[in-house]
Amino acid sequence: MAEWLSFRDAPRIVVPPPGPRSRELLAAQSRLETDAVAYPRYFPIAPRRAQGSTIEDVDGNRFLDWVAGICVLNVGHRHPRVVAAVEAQAAEIWHALELPTEARIRFLETLQGLLPGELRGRARLFLTVTGGDAVETAVNLADHAQRRRGTIAFSGAYHGVHGGVANLTSGRRYRAPNSFTGGSVVRVPYPDPYRPVLGADDGAAGTMSYLEHLVNDPHSGVDPPSAVVVEPILGEGGYVVPPDDFLPSLREFCDRHDLLLIADEVQTGLGRTGRMWAVEHANVTPDLLCIAKSIGGGLPLSVVAYRADLVPDLPRGFHLGTFRGNPLALAAGAETLKILGEGDLLERTRQRGPRIVERLDELAQRHPTLGNVRGRGFMIGAEFVHDRTSRKPWGERAAAMRAALLARGVLMHTAGGWDQVLRFMAPLVIEDELLERGLMAFEESLESLETVHAPARAAGPHGPRSGAGELRRPAEHAVPVPGVPPVPGPVLES
Length: 494
What we know:
alpha/beta, Aspartate Aminotransferase, domain 2, 2 domains
């Protein structure tokens, strides 16, 4: 990287987290805010400022941020170019409803030029605010275009948790509190090579055979749907990478049966997998594309891109919202798209991702609780199991790893049906030195939780070696190793 964006001395632990000032703010939040707040339970710190791929808390600790706001910060915290774009826009106008500001047109034109496949330059764009709102809009558009209702979705799917879109999300814990039920959703097992339900020896053949049964068998119990909504890689479902033939087969299936294909790229899009869009790995063009998270550079913004011929004339006010297309977010979004579309950032992500998987795979060979490592680009999952024979998910071990990493100054979060998967989702701009320090902290955290340690590896001039061509931690930067706290429980009581 030509430019160093992060705090150079991260990770730096000056007081075991949570420090005294963080405890004060956590207690105040617990007293003043709803019990539904979740993230302080996983990361009991109070951030003060952030740069690049690092966060500093109010106690002076500095953390490597491998969460990135759940893939919101692909270009990192406060990228100088994004900051400059927001500051320039703030001097002009902050809120404009749907009126055509220069920021709006600049964003729309930039995004049009970066869309995948046949959507590029030929799509209509619908601005929304959140990822869930984008998916709900896309489903409404599909139903409107097809003049019928019903959506095929997959197990492990996460498409949002508010309003009607919660029905598309598979997790019971997300749907249980939701009172806005409705719509017709047919759930199909996602093709998971590590945990196959319909077989995995023949790629996605089992899943596709089941889909054909649903639409062809008059006694399947399923009325003709309008669309299929799919994550190219499962996000909250555990960073599951499907077989290579899955998306192309799904595209062909939709074409055969007059179904629209909705790709939810809220988490996979904008360079996260090493391509601008994850569907590009399979050379597939969806009919509707849902975009959010990093599209606003950290500000709330989402988009639905859909085939221009799909719905020639939408009713005015279709799926309204006051804050859709906020000028500040659009300015940040346009600059984020330019950063991702220029230079070698995506190529570097494609190159570095497999090296991270290789490093984690090496650890898995010595630590059997690390049952499976998979991913694409900077979207990598490390799944923990009780044993490799049964593959019984071990969510408690993943939570303990999250706590051990926090103590060492690395923020990493879980996913999966049993919260058994640690997911690597660092900003794409993370510096190699910081990436290596984080990997060393991951290894030390693993070893700290094992009752039997593997033999020490031979040390080279830059510290322990895992193999040729690896990323290395500079010798002058030692990873701090404070005591490992217990698995985070409820936030401090007020």
